[in-house]
Structures are given as C-alpha cells and as structure tokens.
Write the structure tokens for this entry.
Amino acid sequence: MSSEVRFITKNFGKYDPMSIDSYLSIGGFSALKRAVTMDGEDIASLVGRAKVKGRGGAAYDMGRKWSQARAVKGDHKLQICNADEGEPCTFKDREIIKNDPFNLIEGMIIGGYTVKAQDGYLYMREEYRHLRPLLQNAIRQAEERGFLGDNILGVEGFNYHIHLYSGAGAYVCGEGTALIRSSEGKAGRPRMKPPFIKVSGAFALPTCVNNVESFAIVPHLLLDDAGFYMSYGGGESVGTKLVSVGGNVRNPGVFEIPFGTTVREIIYGLAQGIPSGHALRLIQFGGASGKITDGRILDVPYTYDDLKKAGVTVGSGAILVIDARTSVLDFLRMNQAFFSHESCGQCTPCREGNLHQKLLLEKLARGEATSEDVAMMKKIGKIMSLSSLCGLGETAQSALLSAMEVFPDTFAVGGAK
Ligand SMILES: Cc1cc2nc3c(=O)[nH]c(=O)nc-3n(C[C@H](O)[C@H](O)[C@H](O)COP(=O)(O)O)c2cc1C
Ligand code: SF4
C-alpha cells in the first residue's frame, strides 16, 4: 500500500508556527532570498516546467498564469491568496495554514516579486477564524524582519504588503470575481467576464488569484535542487498533490500523494478503507461540484488525465467516500440541498434550476416521478451547465448528471434505489 510523501508538507511539525525564528532555523525564507537573485520570468518558467496546475479546482497552468500576470502593465498590481476553501470535503488548505503559515507567506511574497504586485490579499473563510491569529502573527513577524514591506531584502523597489481578509461564510465567495467583490466590502456575487481579473480585478487593478496550496508549493520548488518534485508522477501530472479524504473511511484526513497513486491506495491504504465491513456505494471527486462514480475507479491512477478518462476530475483534491448505508438518491438530495442554499440567486438558470432539481429529486424519492420528470432533470442539468453566469451554476449538476450515467437504476421511474 502507498505511503505519503513529504514535499509540500515537509515543514509540517518541524517548527513552531507562531515563531519566525523557529521557521528561520529550518531554512525559512531561503527560497525568497534565492528568488530575489532571479528574474521573475525565470521563476514563472520554473513553475511552468514543474507543470504546477492551480490547486483551487480549475487546474489552470500556474506558470502561464504568473507569466501573463507579470506581463500586464500597471503601476499598482495585486495578488490574492484564495483561502476560502468552501468546497465540501476540502480541507487541505486549512492544514497548510495551520502547520506552515510562514511558508504560505513566503510563497505569496515570491509570487508578488514574480508578477510585480505590491499588495497581496489573503482571503480566508470565516469558519477558519481560529487560524487568524496564526496568520496575523506570521505577517507581523515577517514585517518586523523586513521580509514584508518596502525594499524587501534590500532590493530597491521590491515593495510587498499582505492584508488579511475574512469572508462571511458563502461558498460562492471562492469564485474569483465574487471573492474580489467581497474583499472590496461589497456583496460577494460573481460578475460577468470580461473584464478579466488579471487586467481589472480588486479595486479595478490588475490582480492575480491563486490557491493556498499553489502558493505553498513555490518556496519548495525554488529550493528543490535535487529535482525531487519532478521525479514524482509523469505526463501532465508531475509532482505531488494534497488530497483531503472524508466520508465513510476509517482514517479521514489530508494526505500528500505522488501523482499516479491509485484511488484504491488512497482510500484503502492511507484512509484505511470503509469501517465495519460496509460496501462502497460511491465516490465523489473534487467536492460537491465534482462528479461521482463507483468502485470501477479504484484501480485508476490519481492523475489529471486518468481521472478525466474515468469520467471524474481532480478539482479541489477532495475525495468523498460514501458507503452502502446511504443511497445514491439520498446523497444527491443532500448535494442538491447544498447548491440550492448556496446559489447567490443572481442568474435564472442557477437560481431556478437548483430549486427545480431539488423538487424533482424529492418527487423521485417519494416514488412519484415520471419518465418526463427524469428527462427534465437531465435537460435542466445541461442547461444550467451551459448558461449559468459562474462556475457554481455551471458545475452544480455534475454529481446528478454523472449519477445518471453511472447509476441508471436510481432513475428507473417507479422505484428509486
Ligand atoms: C463556486 C466556486 C468556488 C470556488 N472556491 C474556491 C476556493 O475555495 N478556493 C480556491 O482556491 N479556489 C476556488 N475556486 C476557484 C477560483 O475561482 C480560482 O480558480 C482559484 O482560486 C485560482 O487559483 P489557482 O489557479 O491557484 O487554483 C472556486 C470557484 C468557484 C466557481
Ligand atoms: S451561477 Fe449561481 S452562484 Fe453564479 S452568479 Fe448565477 S446564481 Fe449566482
């Protein structure tokens, strides 16, 4: 069975997260010291060569994002660290913040240097309020030691400040434009694009948004002379990934795996399988907005390509295991209730679609649904994914639509499993 690797998590437990001296004693800020001797474009291309894909869910090429952000003209540019982590069963960023806050801060500063941003906003979900003191302390101590502020490390004109923001607890605020509106003190509702965030983001300034794990990789990559990171995985899935495994498993938690570990090794090895001998019902990948499948995926390697071929995606890195005590239909009703609650209501396909899907699933559960109802569910799901204003509405039906493929019996009218 597979074991974990330690690359992104290599500092966990090695220093006192409240003490910059403790961080410095394990080589903290060495990556930043190296970064300022490099050209920003070379840092972006290192991240690109390592094929790091954004870890917030969309898997956008991070090297390309930094290179594009760097090229955007502007006297004042911003960077945002997305620590909203509202996707159900996703809790990997919390572990980074809790165990290695200084590395996250260092990753942001290197990001600021690379894309030429002067201010970084760290937007953290309200439910992580207990972690605020850790980050406030890390930011203050980094300022006191000259790693944040003006002319950092004596580099003329390298000015970077970090501001900590808290959301008010809405899932949609993880979406880039909603996050930005929320950071500006407005209601956290997504907006149409263009203008794209990279040219007109927070306060109408060029803004580059990245996930916590995306930032956290960078200091380690800069110091990885041995090329450990790139020795893991292969193809488009190079390196390691944090996955958060939850649901009906004996050992739920966050694990750092090399890409290519099989799903079986993750669920039955690291997470120690399903308790009390219950059978596996379904697995959802990437959070509530992810697709579901059954045990046929167990021997598939966890890579971007292999999961896609198997009909699911990496998404946020969440893996939710549901055993046979919960029916597929009950699971879908629970998932749908989440989206009906979290839709911001701004656009019709998502607002009305989520409500109708909820009612239709309830009808199916009562045994009253007709074949027309099932056909309507499929139609609404597709319309929502094609016409919603933001990613929330676009992906809200992933679980339902994939369930229709994988668990057709659930939708056999007249009896719902
Ligand atoms: C509804 C919704 C919620 C999201 N929530 C998060 C989140 O909590 N954290 C996150 O990093 N990205 C989230 N994203 C993705 C972000 O919009 C964005 O792609 C990401 O922060 C970019 O960083 P990355 O390229 O490093 O992944 C969400 C997207 C949508 C549509
Ligand atoms: S898709 Fe849903 S969450 Fe997104 S803007 Fe429309 S109503 Fe709001």
